[in-house]
Predict the structure.
Amino acid sequence: METRHFDFVVIGGGSAGYAAARTARESFENVAIVEEGGELGGLCILRGCMPSKTLIYSAEVLHLAKEGKKFGLNIPEAAADMQALHQRKLTTIEGFASYRQEQLGSDRFHLIRDRAVFVDEKTVSLASSGEKITADFFLIATGSVVNTPDIPGLRETPHWTSDDVLDLDFLPQSVIVLGGGIVACELAQFLNRVGTKVIQIQRSKRILKECSPESAEVVMQVFRNEGIDLHTGTDLKSVAKEGGEYIVHFTENDEEHNVRAAHLFNALGRKPNTKGLSLENAGVETKLSGQICVDKMQRTANARIYAAGDVAGPHEIVHLAILQGEVAANHAAGKNPEPVNYDIKTGVVFTDPQVAAAGLSLEEAKEKGVDVIVADYPFDDHGKSILMEAKHGYVKVWADRATGKVIGAECVGKDGGELIHALAVAITLGATPAQLLKVHWYHPTLSEIWSYPLEDLAESLKNT
């Protein structure tokens, strides 16, 4: 069988892969995308960002309807129609997926629906056809898969993953959620708000370990206020299914617990999807976490091969995956691109209240030896959030004392994912609090809350 050669081959057709292929096509004539999945579109569109946020928003509307009396409204009954909710999600993501499929299948690329396995440093074999493909450059963008830790009984017990929860067309009576990460928390609150009894079990002392302890405390309190049975600081002992019920045995504060529910949702994180690629044949190295080792240009230990997105880390965020894919393709084309600057990254957790952050975290700033000055302000003392009954949370801003520039910010509250971008722009452009106070912060808006900590920072910096 004849071997085909390409200038640039992308393995994986998700956000990172498509961004890399699109960028590579600007410089290379012969670009191929190898995708083994049954559906085209990638995790974000098909089983991640878009379906989850569609459902979460519907659940927020339902929650507000149920809280109608707080707003002087008489709404006698509000309930989720799970089949209609499911259909709305399918219709919504179809628009995004069809566009991506159209782009991947265009004559700009050679789309190969198969699984790639590395044979050597410059060759992959296609699992189904046995055909071999060589390339000047490869990019691995195979994403991540659900992680199933070694908890006694978990592997042997059929359970839901996020894919299953996002595909529900009925209302579960009760669900045990294992995990307290971003996906676990977003979907636990979704399930609770549509009417499912939710028991959430987190191994560490707090949920949302990716976020600050203060932000996690706010979300934990809201979860408990809304009726989620939340357990933290636990040691999972066993998982089993008996008589149609799932039973999870764990300890919390040295006390033994057994909880039961009709369904079990494993939300204990994801891991890089590298199984079956035979990376060792290509000289590609991985970390203990399973992530592929890359340099600032996304190159692996094999200079012909790049990696981007969840499979490479360090953050599982779509816009970073896209930037990584673009950097890799431009570097392969000899364009000497700027590497991704993680010091100005933005992150959002779509719980309610939302948790959003931009720039360096306080912990990261401390590790870099930056002398920071911090100011914050609560939502429960802010006009627009009070009239919206959105009093949970706060905004916090920190600046580098030496330069006076804002280097980080956090927003825990209503629409935090939207509000954070005002500070993300400021951080990216290197603005100071005094400069930001020149902005016309309109009253009454949620956004004007930023002006209060910025005033405190500007005053403190003036006196240093």
About this structure: The chain has three domains: 4-146+271-341, 162-267, 343-462. DSSP finds 13 helices and 21 strands in the chain.
